[in-house]
């Protein structure tokens, strides 16, 4: 805010500041909103039964600082959780079939007795039938195991180019992750529009632009419940998590269910127009919020102290700063700096 009255922070991912207010005043390009509206109008039949033909992806410059450590760790934990659950399900099916097979000989013996068979004929019938049932059960168990693998539930496409790409690939391979790498491209690229789920475990973002863009395109977004993602929690297609189990649950839900189309009112919250309105609202100072004359004098004193250190031409030259750089004039020429910090409160209307 002007005149030292306060600071607007884009998110609480940055440090605390005096008289701060947090407001996401960032928006996405109109092309992302247009993609979201187009996906909303489309029917599942137009896309072969689903509005999205691909699963999950991550996009970002291939440098570790963009969240790749967190991404690979989350995917490793997710893969382990899914595989463990599938193995438990397979073991439960195997146990149930074993119990069923134990009942087969007795039932066959009773059937043979009812048919009047005894001796070798009854034994042969019992053996043949039991073998057939066992073979069918074994085949069913094998098919169940194949269907219970990690499959697409653990696959992720990673889109990005950068100096750490080779190291990132090596780490993914060491973790035995089911990931595919593709060169970087624009987030609005047609090939990316087909993805249903955007995963962004980064903890270094301030405004998380890619998350906003993915939401605008009508996708699920899976993000950690941290300050930089607080703005997105109002959207139904945003799934947050606190730990590895939460990440896995959120990703599975997003892969197994299509995101709900957003109406215009919700979608427009991601636009630059809405961001500008939020900026105007949060920067407007009510009469009761205007700092007192004493506070303004204090701010002016602090400002003059700062200028006394950085404002003199000799010191500026020693620090390699131009003697006059646009609005940041040397102190000798800055006659209005003191008065600018003291502003009369607005008149109530």
Automatic annotation (TrEMBL):
GO cellular component, one term: chloroplast outer membrane
Gene Ontology BP annotations: galactolipid biosynthetic process
SUPFAM superfamilies, per database record: UDP-Glycosyltransferase/glycogen phosphorylase
Organism domain of life: Eukaryota
Pfam assignment, any one: Glyco_trans_1_4
Chief place where the protein resides: membrane
Record key words, sorted: Chloroplast, Membrane, Plastid, Transferase
Region of interest (Disordered), residue spans: 323-349
Molecular function per GO: digalactosyldiacylglycerol synthase activity
Family note: Belongs to the glycosyltransferase group 1 family. Glycosyltransferase 4 subfamily.
Protein name: Digalactosyldiacylglycerol synthase
């Amino acid at each position: 805010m002007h005149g030292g009255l306060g600071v607007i922070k884009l998110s609480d991912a940055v440090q605390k500041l005096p008289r701060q207010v947090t407001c996401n005043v960032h928006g996405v390009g109109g092309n992302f909103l247009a993609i979201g509206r187009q996906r909303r109008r489309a029917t599942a039949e137009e896309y072969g039964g689903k509005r999205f033909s691909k699963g999950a992806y991550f996009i970002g410059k291939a440098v570790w600082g963009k969240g790749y450590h967190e991404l690979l760790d989350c995917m490793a934990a997710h893969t382990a959780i899914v595989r463990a659950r599938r193995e438990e399900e397979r073991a439960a099916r195997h146990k149930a079939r074993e119990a069923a097979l134990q009942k087969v000989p007795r039932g066959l013996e009773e059937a043979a007795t009812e048919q009047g068979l005894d001796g070798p004929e009854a034994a042969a019938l019992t053996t043949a039938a039991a073998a057939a049932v066992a073979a069918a059960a074994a085949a069913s168990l094998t098919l169940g195991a194949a269907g219970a693998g990690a499959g697409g539930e653990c696959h992720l496409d990673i889109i990005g180019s950068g100096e750490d790409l080779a190291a990132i690939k090596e780490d993914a391979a060491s973790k035995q992750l089911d990931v595919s790498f593709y060169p970087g491209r624009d987030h609005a690229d047609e090939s990316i529009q087909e993805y249903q789920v955007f995963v962004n475990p980064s903890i270094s973002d301030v405004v998380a632009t890619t998350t906003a863009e993915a939401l605008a395109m009508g996708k699920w977004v899976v993000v950690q419940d941290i300050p930089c993602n607080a703005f997105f929690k109002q959207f139904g297609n945003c799934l947050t998590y606190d730990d590895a189990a939460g990440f896995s649950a959120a990703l599975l839900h997003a892969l197994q269910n299509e995101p709900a189309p957003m109406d215009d009112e919700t979608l427009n919250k991601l636009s630059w127009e809405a961001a500008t309105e939020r900026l105007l609202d949060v920067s407007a100072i009510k009469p009761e919020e205007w700092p007192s004359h004493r506070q303004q004098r204090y701010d002016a004193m602090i400002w003059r102290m700062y200028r006394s250190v950085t404002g003199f031409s000799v010191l500026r030259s020693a620090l390699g700063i131009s003697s006059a750089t646009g609005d940041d004039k040397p102190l000798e020429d800055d006659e209005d700096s003191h008065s600018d910090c003291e502003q009369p409160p607005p008149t109530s209307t």
